[in-house]
Amino acid sequence: MKAIVIGGGIGGICAALALKRFGIETAVYEAVKQIKPVGAAISIWPNGVKCLNYLGMKEPLRALGGPMHYMAYNEYQQGQTLTRFSMDPLIESVGERPYPVARAELQAMLLDNYGRDAVQFGKRVTAVEQSASGVTAFFDDGSEAHGDLLIAADGTHSVVRQHVLGYPTERRYAGYVNWNGLVEIDESIAPANQWTTFVGEGKRVSLMPVSGNRFYFFFDVPLPPGLAEDRSTLRADLQRYFRGWAPQVQQLIASINPETTNRIEIHDIEPFMPLVKGRVALLGDAAHSTTPDIGQGGCAAMEDAVVLATVLQTHSLGIEDALLRYQDKRAVRVKDLVLKARKRCDVTHGKEMAVTEQWYKELEQETGERILAGMCETILGGPLQ
Ligand code: URC
């Protein structure tokens, strides 16, 4: 059996690794010459970590992960702690810890484990055709690839999605802009072993430790889409949006590198069906695009990969049957994740300011129990328990 994998990002490489593990021949085709993720880092929650462990990357992942032992929310003006608690109860309950990692390093780890030489870069898919005997992908350089099945892990702007759905999808603007990047850890901004988030005015400033003594930072500001902002004004823009915020926040803005800071208008896609058609399966952002608000976009792609490989390995009624089983196992899960993230997004970013103010009040009473219970529920919905 041969699988064509479209997309060499997190979902594509995890899928290729998972299939390879079961002896299925794979070839990965990536549109760009060099992958440049729009996010500087990503929090891999235990459901995602378990998938990477399962795919044989337990040790290299640990080396990339930052020490996120505590979690805290601070109020925005003085930077005082609203709540702070240990992640240990979560880790004990689900059996694995979360690892925030730099995206470039995660990508390198995935490629090293799969084999860089097995990925063909600069292959942008333009069309997909399938018959009773196989599937063909056509690329913009005039070349083609043939296989028994095709896994479309071609991201939120997926070209293959329309082949599966039969109609084009539109992304939905989530209402906020996210600036993110990496910065050297400075403990006068936040503790090195903690995920720290400053909240107020429907905005947030967040810091997560990754390896190499660095913080992943992100700033979220509710804004209309399409604003013209560029690197040359990036620091001044953030200073303006966060005027009156705590000294730690001002210090962070002063210390970031505008040249390597990403600015993204956050979108998601209304959950849709089907996720498969015949011999073609959507996977990762191509199948479900979420806001980053519960940190589950990458994790969901890892889960998809494990489930897809498992159904192909464990069933014998053919590829089309196995892909339908993949869809059955994933559809509710990924819809729940997208909608849960959207709900958190709206509360965090002041969609209804009274609701957001109520959340700030609740954070003062929070012992960690409620927040960790919500995370546990999300994590335990994954395929590897
Ligand atoms: N939660 C996460 C978030 N990760 O676990 C993450 C968030 N990355 O709310 N936001 C973001 O950009």
Automatic annotation (TrEMBL):
It is an enzyme of class 1 (oxidoreductase). Keywords: FAD, Flavoprotein, Monooxygenase, NAD, Oxidoreductase, Purine metabolism. Its EC number is 1.14.13.113. Its cofactor is FAD. It catalyses: urate + NADH + O2 + H(+) = 5-hydroxyisourate + NAD(+) + H2O. The keyword Cell cycle does not apply. InterPro entries: FAD-bd, FAD-dep_Monooxygenase_BioMet, FAD/NAD-bd_sf, HpxO. It comes from the Bacteria. Pathway: Purine metabolism; urate degradation. Residues 2-338 form the FAD-binding domain. SUPFAM superfamilies: FAD/NAD(P)-binding domain. GO terms for molecular function: FAD-dependent urate hydroxylase activity. NCBIfam families: urate_HpxO (NF033623). Belongs to the FAD-dependent urate hydroxylase family. This is FAD-dependent urate hydroxylase. The lineage of its organism: Bacteria, Pseudomonadati, Pseudomonadota, Gammaproteobacteria, Enterobacterales.
